[in-house]
Q: What sequence folds into this?
């Protein structure tokens, strides 16, 4: 509430400037200074690590407001702002396959005050899809992985397939009729579809892909019967499933999703070896000092245990899956190999 | 009146042809990547590129008859306008280097001078007030993330 | 339908509680202010305020966020009318006649009628929402990629009417606008195209910096050139529109509402489509189409009504399927989810009280918007009398802020400056700018529709004529284009006869 009141005050001040100007020119005396939101000036201890953070942190998110990485990051930013007592501001730098925003963030000073949210799309997937990737995955300082998002295969509710086994059989027999939704040739949906089709013994190059503008668009196209299947996150499909337009068949995650316990896993149905998933983690420019990495990991650990945060997370049906800096880096390196191989099979590696 | 070789329509036509050629070349580059001949990033590039080349050529051959006269401002005003345009470019560059408040204040002084012809003192005052106000509203109040400058 | 009516009445009862009323008013007010400040769109305002509203109950918070959404729709028209800065794409048609009105000293009536049109259309939109929400849910899905492609072609056919004297140039400007929209990452391959190796270009051209550059900056230069003392030094007269103004605007408002509402029902259809279409329809319905662009009140009333009706109708796909029609609604969707309210038909059943309260609050909020804004009109109009020496530089700064904030990128600022300088010369030589902007906005939707259709049909172009809806839209497009070209010729002839010289028909 306090923020919005100061917002209104400031806007009114601004308006009054214009009103003041209309009479005589710039006679307005310097206005009373509005409260500046300064960070608590923590004294730097003489000994080792300097205090962090002492001023606002910019958290760059490479998708537009409302996307899953944005919602999750805003939850985290909100909590971190309260915890650290400095504003952690989410800045959306969307477009260009989430790559230019990340590049810009990685170009900032490595002081821990510019942090960037990453997903597999702008790390391992772009590495796998390009022989000369825009983002060099070996250079950034990886802070930690925080969230995990499960993927689920959905089909139209009016379709004949009641379970994943039936669908697998049909998909193998009719590659020419299968149209899979994806959100771009290099996207989690495309990779997940390729991996699944590969795992059931099909040839990915035989099926058609329909590119949509995002997860909820994919669900819409599927509900309208414009495509046959969609591999997306639960959140993007949930409202269409509730509406009785589309049906969950199986999730590619290792375990059933706690919010959708009725949806079986692929593994239960004999489709094994699936690893494409979606996660959200945070990285900072190359050379970011260790005390920043430490501070983030400490704070995130406290955050994950906070019931209030958990409640907020439950509302957006999100799930934390923490990984420390080292493990996170290793995960990305491992995924790079997986995606390189998949991209070659899909025929999108350039 | 016969259109001159370098009239606006012909320049525009030529520009369109160039853009068209760029479009076609990008289309050719992207074609091998597409899943099928009609669904891929190259389709619209090719269509628009082709149409632009044809229409551009038509315009070069047959420019429209101009039934109005284009009047450019007199010397003094023109210099002021060019000054404002250059200041705008300088402002964009400074924004990245000095941050929002400082660059707004600096460029504001000259812009107020150019637009209103006020005395330097008034310009400095007006620029300072504008910079503080805009900073308060957009950066402090609304949390906009302008490039970090040296002062704010 | 009767059932939804009773539910709506219950909603009104809850929405009229003092706290809910306060939230609606606060939302509408903040929204208007946010809309007035260029660049800071409803999407970012809602995103910023979601954490702030978390202290409120879900219903109150959503009432306030919805208020910000439609308040900003209205507020955006203020800068469009007074300063020729369209804060968002949907406000461009408002500029076309609103700004000339302000220049003529009729900024007051222009703002007044835009407030009235917004309010009326908004309230009608809420009524429509209550009646159509349950029925419409079924139909939204019939509108697939081929239909979208057809609809985009249909929208683009109105280019003819914005092309000025030489239609060929209008088409070329349109195609150039389309090429601009293709710069960046290709939608299917994810590979950069037309970027020539530049990283900044891979994000593509956002429409806001292009629009600010082409509309607002040339206006500032023109102001310098004409040694403007103030945008409107005339007496503003009454800030309230006259009876005559209201009479003239009545049907445009109704038509604008109908266009805005029905296009708003289509999931993912840009609000700009409806405002442009409404402007075009008004021009066609008018007895004096040649006067459009010189300050016709119908040209303000229609698009404003369309814009607000569209924003209300957008709640139907949002609440029933979770499909956001605009970035602002996408953020609102995130807001709903943060409060644990998953949109979908179940939302109407499980959270019926909540849904209908929000709908009712929008009705009340639109009324409040009118009551709050009519007195403010006088204040806004004063803006146009601020000496140009002061206002000019401030507008320049606001343009830069606006273009930067759309994506937090310096690249966009450079885009604005370059387009501003080019735009000045384009206007000098009367090259039609509207087709370029329209195509730049609609291009991506059109391309996506085409490529998706091709994926569906396995590269058969026949799909556009096999599906009944898209086939009908295509036939309509052809008929309308023939009609437009004929009407255009006639208007031109009439204008020449009337004034003895060739008029500059709608080419700015």
A:
């Amino acid at each position: 509430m306090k923020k919005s009141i100061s917002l209104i005050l400031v806007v009114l001040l601004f308006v009054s400037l214009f009103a003041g100007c209309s009479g005589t020119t710039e006679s307005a005396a310097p206005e009373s200074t509005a409260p500046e939101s300064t960070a608590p000036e923590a004294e730097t201890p003489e000994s080792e690590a300097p205090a962090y953070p002492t001023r606002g942190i910019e958290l760059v998110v490479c998708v537009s407001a409302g996307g899953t990485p944005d919602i999750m990051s805003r939850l985290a930013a909100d909590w971190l702002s309260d915890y650290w007592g400095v504003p952690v501001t989410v800045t959306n730098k969307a477009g260009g396959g989430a790559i230019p925003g990340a590049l810009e963030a990685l170009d900032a000073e490595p002081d821990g005050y510019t942090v960037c949210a990453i997903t597999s799309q702008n790390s391992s997937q772009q590495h796998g899809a390009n022989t000369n990737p825009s983002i060099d995955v070996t250079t950034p300082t990886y802070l930690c992985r925080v969230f995990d998002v499960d993927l689920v295969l959905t089909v139209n509710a009016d379709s004949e397939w009641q379970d994943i086994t039936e669908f697998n059989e049909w998909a193998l027999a009719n590659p020419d009729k299968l149209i899979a939704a994806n959100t771009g040739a290099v996207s989690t949906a495309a990779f997940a579809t390729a991996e699944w089709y590969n795992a059931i013994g099909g040839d990915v190059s035989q099926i058609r892909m329909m590119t949509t503008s995002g997860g909820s668009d994919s669900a819409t196209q599927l509900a309208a019967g414009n495509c046959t299947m969609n591999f997306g996150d639960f959140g993007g499909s949930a409202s269409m499933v509730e509406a009785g337009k589309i049906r969950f068949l199986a999730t590619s995650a290792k375990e059933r999703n706690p919010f959708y316990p009725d949806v079986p896993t692929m593994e239960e149905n004999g489709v094994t070896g699936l690893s494409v998933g979606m996660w959200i983690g945070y990285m900072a420019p190359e050379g970011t000092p260790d005390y920043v990495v430490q501070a983030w990991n400490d704070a995130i650990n406290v955050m994950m245990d906070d019931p209030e945060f958990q409640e907020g997370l439950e509302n957006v049906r999100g799930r934390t899956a923490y990984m420390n800096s080292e493990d996170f880096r290793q995960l990305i390196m491992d995924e790079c190999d997986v995606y390189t191989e998949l991209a070659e099979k899909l025929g999108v590696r350039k | 009146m016969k259109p001159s070789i370098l009239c606006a329509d012909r320049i525009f036509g030529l520009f369109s042809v160039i853009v068209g050629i760029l479009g076609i070349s990008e289309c050719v580059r992207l074609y091998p990547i597409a899943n099928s001949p009609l669904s891929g990033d190259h389709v619209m590039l090719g269509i628009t590129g082709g149409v632009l080349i044809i229409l551009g050529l038509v315009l070069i051959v047959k420019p429209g008859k101009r039934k109005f006269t284009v009047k450019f401002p007199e010397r003094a005003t023109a210099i002021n306008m060019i000054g404002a345009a250059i200041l705008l470019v300088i402002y964009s560059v400074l924004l990245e280097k000095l941050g929002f408040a400082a660059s707004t204040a600096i460029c504001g002084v000259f812009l107020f001078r150019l637009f209103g012809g006020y005395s330097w003192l008034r310009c400095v005052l007006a620029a300072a007030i504008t910079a503080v106000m805009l900073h308060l509203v957009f950066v402090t109040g609304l949390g906009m993330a302008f490039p970090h400058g040296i002062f704010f | 339908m009767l059932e939804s009516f009773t539910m709506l009445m219950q909603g009104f009862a809850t929405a009229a509680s003092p706290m809910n009323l306060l939230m609606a008013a606060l939302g509408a007010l903040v929204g208007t202010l946010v809309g007035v400040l260029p660049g800071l769109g409803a999407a970012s305002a809602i995103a910023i305020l979601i954490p702030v509203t978390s202290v409120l109950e879900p219903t109150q918070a959503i009432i306030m966020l919805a208020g910000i959404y439609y308040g900003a729709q209205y507020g955006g028209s203020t800068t469009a009318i007074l300063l020729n800065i369209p804060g968002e794409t949907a406000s461009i048609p408002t500029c076309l006649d609103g700004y000339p009105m302000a220049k003529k000293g009729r900024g007051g009536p222009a703002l007044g009628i835009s407030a009235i049109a917004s309010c009326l259309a908004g309230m009608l939109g809420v009524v429509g929402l209550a009646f159509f929400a349950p029925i419409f849910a079924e139909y939204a899905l019939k509108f697939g990629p081929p239909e979208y492609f057809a609809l985009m072609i249909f929208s683009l056919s109105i280019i003819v009417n914005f092309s000025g004297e030489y239609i060929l140039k209008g088409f070329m400007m349109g195609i150039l606008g389309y090429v601009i929209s293709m710069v960046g990452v290709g939608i299917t391959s994810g590979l950069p195209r037309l970027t020539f190796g530049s990283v900044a270009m891979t994000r593509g051209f956002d429409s806001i910096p292009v629009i600010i550059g082409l509309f607002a900056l040339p206006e500032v230069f023109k102001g310098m050139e004409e040694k403007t003392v103030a945008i409107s030094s005339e007496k503003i007269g009454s800030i309230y529109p006259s009876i005559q103004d209201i009479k003239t605007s009545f049907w445009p408002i109704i038509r604008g509402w109908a266009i805005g509402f029905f296009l708003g029902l289509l999931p993912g259809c840009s609000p700009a489509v409806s405002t442009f279409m409404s402007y075009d329809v008004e021009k066609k319905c008018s007895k004096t189409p040649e006067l459009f662009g010189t300050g016709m009140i119908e040209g303000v009333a229609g698009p404003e009504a369309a814009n607000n009706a569209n924003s209300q109708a957008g709640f139907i796909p949002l609440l029933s399927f979770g499909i956001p029609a605009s970035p602002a609604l996408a953020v609102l969707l995130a807001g709903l989810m943060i409060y644990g309210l998953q949109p979908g038909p179940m939302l109407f059943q499980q959270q019926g009280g909540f849904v209908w309260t929000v709908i009712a609050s929008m009705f009340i909020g639109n009324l409040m918007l009118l009551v709050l804004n009519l007195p403010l009109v006088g204040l806004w109009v004063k803006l146009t009398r601020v000496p140009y020496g002061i206002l000019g530089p401030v507008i320049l700064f606001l343009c830069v802020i606006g273009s930067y904030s759309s994506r937090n990128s310096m690249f966009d600022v450079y885009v604005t400056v370059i387009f501003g300088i080019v735009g000045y010369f384009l206007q000098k030589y009367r090259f039609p700018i509207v087709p370029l902007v329209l195509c730049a906005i609609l291009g991506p939707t059109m391309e996506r529709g085409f490529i998706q259709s091709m994926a569906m049909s396995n590269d058969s172009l026949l799909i556009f004529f096999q599906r009944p809806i898209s086939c009908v839209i295509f036939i309509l497009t052809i008929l309308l284009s023939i009609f437009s070209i004929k009407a255009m010729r006639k208007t031109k002839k009439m204008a020449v006869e009337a004034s003895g010289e060739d008029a500059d028909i709608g080419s700015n």
Q: What stands out?
A: The two ends of chain B are 58 Å apart (CA to CA). Chain B touches chain C through 65 residues (CB under 8 Å). Residues 75-98 of chain B form the longest helix (24 residues). Chain B has two domains: 8-61, 75-141.
